[in-house]
Structure of Zinc finger protein 292:
Amino acid sequence: MADEEAEQERLSRGEGGCVAELQRLGEQLQELERQLRESRVPAVEAATDYCQQLCQGLTVTQAGMQ
């Protein structure tokens, strides 16, 4: 546990906003997963929306980390 905290602190200092971006991405993925599970639209449509939003989130995150 202490090793994980030390690693997170090291990354926070050394990588600037990367840790924050990755945390935001994780939260976004959890929200997308919740939306996919609760969706009432056909599975193919819900999965397509999920993939599109996932790709968009990854693109934004990658741009923020550069």
User: Anything to note?
Assistant: Residues 3-64 form one domain.
